[in-house]
Amino acid sequence: MTAVVTGGASGIGEACVRRLAAEGHSVAILDMGVERGNDVVRDLTEAGHSAHMFACDVSDCSKMESLAEQIESELGPVEILIPAAGILENSGSVLDMDVEAHDRLWQVNYHGSLHTARAFGRTMMGRGRGSIVFIGSTNSFAPFPLPAYSPSKFAILRLMQMLAIEFGRKGVRVNGVAPTYTLTPALKARIESGERDLEVIKKSGAIDIVVEPRHVADAVHFLCSDQAAAITGVMLPVDAGWMAATLYRSYAGGVPWSDT
């Protein structure tokens, strides 16, 4: 079974690639980071797995469609699709944001996810089987001062729900995962530069754990598996209880428990 992961050369995408490869899937990494992607392919190949790297800008609709045809021809039917390619941004206001950076983020995060789902979803529907898992965020459920990223993740939630309905009657399940702060290389870099505080992140959830890419990949794998055969249209939080804890702590009448 072939699994395609965009943004699979690093971070959450890479963790998904490694998790799916470990389960015996032939994995295709679609990413602009060719050198890093080739390193991942080399690691997996040396470990006896089937892995392939394809240079790809997910924001290019026509190239995504042609690449989907190429992968289907060279690797066989794609039954798992993880549109994980995405760009982060730092806190800012709508009025002061860099408009070009805003538009580029949307081209990758939202339009890239849309183009990917359309390109591979057609053949999945034609065969009557498959699973797509989008990478959402806690931003899919709540507003953050991230003027491009936060709305893009809400849009992915709605796209996922729509496609779950449109694709579902043709045998394709569509879900998503919604990670909180995840210890990816991008977040680590922000912690090291002082733009994020690891201690604040640790205390933000309901349980004392920092979410790592492998935790998200485990949830993705579950949603792709037969164990989730009756699950579609769901955006599953992988947030160490961040959403529950945030609402709980915000109660104006005071709370009986706090770690701050």
Attribute tags:
260 residues, alpha/beta, Rossmann fold, 7 strands
User: How many helical elements?
Assistant: 9
Please describe the biggest sheet, giving its number of strands, its sense, and whether it closes into a barrel: 7 strands, parallel
Q: Total domains, how many?
A: 1
The SSE string, one letter per element, is EHEHEHEHEHEHHHEH
Helix percent reads 40-55%
Would you report the number of β strands? 7
- Specify the CATH architecture: 3-Layer(aba) Sandwich
Q: CATH topology, anyone?
A: Rossmann fold
Round the mean pLDDT to the nearest integer and report it. Answer: 95
Name of the CATH homologous superfamily: NAD(P)-binding Rossmann-like Domain
The structure class reads alpha/beta
**Shape summary:** globular
Q: State the separation between the terminal residues, measured CA to CA.
A: 48 Å
> Which band does the percent of strand residues land in?
15-25%
Return residue spans where pLDDT drops below 50 for at least 5 consecutive residues.
none
Give the CATH class.
Alpha Beta
Largest sheet strand order: 3-2-1-4-5-6-7
Rg over C-alpha atoms, rounded to the nearest angstrom: 18 Å
